């Protein structure tokens, strides 16, 4: 008679193996069926396969405490948070017992409630539960299990089974009643802000982000988005996009970019600011730059910049700058009115450093240069060179001026008058950055040639 397999020898191990197999099957199916599958999908499949291998190998080694913990020990010996056998049980103010390391992690992330009862803790003192500790010790001794020393530190990146269960329950509520959606959205916002592990959990499921966005998609169809719910969902999306492994996943989730664009257009200023910040974070990937640009997100970003809300401008400018690192988006930004809006803000001395950087980037686009000349950018840029103590601002200004003057010969007169009156360009050719000196010297040489031509004619 054949020996039972490792998985069949213990129901808990078998359940874990079944869960891993199911997840692996889903990932492999996604790779086989979808020609445009992502590298991350392969990585997740490898992780599940390695976990399955480890589970199999564990049973072939001599029993370790970690494996024996999966045996049917009394429920009161398991930590409600980790679902594992406790080594250092402690009691919280409500009388519930937890593994010290895991309840400390819970408290460290800002929670002040008992995870089991949900009651607010009157204090955060952790009292050793010697009774449970002794019972666990006796239970292990009777089964020949050596109880190892407690683990006093749990990584913030660690994900417990309790974390996963709570995460899934919150996602389920996002398709429930409005009150449950609001409660779940607020908690997901807080958890993804405080705990990197919750950001990572969204990457383990292909439909997690869709479930998160479900209330906004439904509200849009019903013409009734609740601003508090929208703010929590959009902010959660921002928190998720911080995690590198989520950037591609978020951007490629159907409706994600369109809902961020809608938030830019119609949300409160907090919502619009966070939506802009999310687009900025997502645009770190070149593939996302293309996707966001083709979705039409530059127009609402430029419109928000035009409104000039101090709270939103920096995030908006950062998003536009990053998106315009690819030439296709430069053309889109120019078409959507970026040059006029940016020049107006710079003239009003709003966010000059950031907006000059965008304008300098756009100056490689022919239509942008033409528009700058038509809108009278030269006096504004020259005044910044004279007034600004920032070497980078002077450099950006002279680079833009160099492009404008090379494109439009009628602008050389303004440059000559500026040089005659203030010696602005000569000063920069002597004291600017290496790039500024080069551009300023190029303008001076051109001015001298023009003067010589006038004198000899």
From TrEMBL:
<feature type="domain" description="U-box">
    <location>
        <begin position="72"/>
        <end position="146"/>
    </location>
</feature>
<protein>
    <recommendedName>
        <fullName>RING-type E3 ubiquitin transferase</fullName>
        <ecNumber>2.3.2.27</ecNumber>
    </recommendedName>
</protein>
<keyword id="KW-0677">Repeat</keyword>
<dbReference type="InterPro" id="IPR045210">
    <property type="entry name" value="RING-Ubox_PUB"/>
</dbReference>
<dbReference type="Pfam" id="PF25598">
    <property type="entry name" value="ARM_PUB"/>
</dbReference>
<keyword id="KW-0808">Transferase</keyword>
<dbReference type="InterPro" id="IPR058678">
    <property type="entry name" value="ARM_PUB"/>
</dbReference>
<dbReference type="InterPro" id="IPR000225">
    <property type="entry name" value="Armadillo"/>
</dbReference>
<dbReference type="GO" id="GO:0016567">
    <property type="term" value="P:protein ubiquitination"/>
</dbReference>
<keyword id="KW-0833">Ubl conjugation pathway</keyword>
<dbReference type="GO" id="GO:0061630">
    <property type="term" value="F:ubiquitin protein ligase activity"/>
</dbReference>
<comment type="pathway">
    <text>Protein modification; protein ubiquitination.</text>
</comment>
<dbReference type="Pfam" id="PF04564">
    <property type="entry name" value="U-box"/>
</dbReference>
<dbReference type="InterPro" id="IPR003613">
    <property type="entry name" value="Ubox_domain"/>
</dbReference>
